[in-house]
UniProtKB/TrEMBL annotation:
This is Uncharacterized protein. It comes from the Bacteria.
Amino acid sequence: MALPPQDERTLPAVVLRDVDQRPLEHALAEMQTLVEHHGHIIVVCSSAAPTAVRRRLHTLRSLLESDRIALFRPDLPPLATAVLARQLRQLASCDISPGVLASAGRLLVHYIHAGALLNSVARLDRVPVGLTSHAKSWLPGSQFGVLAHPEPRLVRITPEAALPGPEFATRMLVARGQLQSDWVTGTLAPSWKAQGLREVPLPAESPGWWGTGKLIEFCSYLPDLPVLYQLVASVRRGNCHWCGIDVIGDRCVFCSAGPPDPAGPPRAQLESRTAVG
């Protein structure tokens, strides 16, 4: 799901529709055109996406033999994944190199709080659920507040029910499924001191991720571009020892190279020796 722009600087998203169902040559031509036009591509893939989608994305990257395609699959619910993709679209308007921008996704994940209000946890397998909660989920009228990220938490909705929220200023997005309740907007959002609340359509993958269509999904996040930019700019950067691109962290999101092996030279040295020879 591509969320609407957060501000006038937010770059538009390119949605790879039915990438696993279209003929391979069509998807390949689309990806090649995107790489040639933009230079580098960051593909944000939901963890709820079918296995066939993930396989097709890896196939496209492999066939293009390109280190300019980063595949990022954050362990987040669908709405939070859409929020993270929009944050990267915001940052893409700044003077940030492709490697740092792609690496920023792993940093921004830590500042997202995501969960849902569910009518049942009987089919929930993304968050640990005890036997007592499973049993109570069969009682008529039961509802559960579930926090999936950053720390899994599950509570049965009562007047005293609460979920731990962010310790910094955030806004909240709410996506309603087939569940009627004002607990998220009337109780949770005020307790989290959300500085703004907006409703968006429920992502198509949400019922499958949460195990029920009777839900209200929510996500709190950092909305302002200056704050996002400062977070990314304050982190130490390095160079990938294999492809040479600027990165944050110890693993390149484009060529997937990890920390250098002290026993072997980087690719740049190998290519230099080959050229000399």
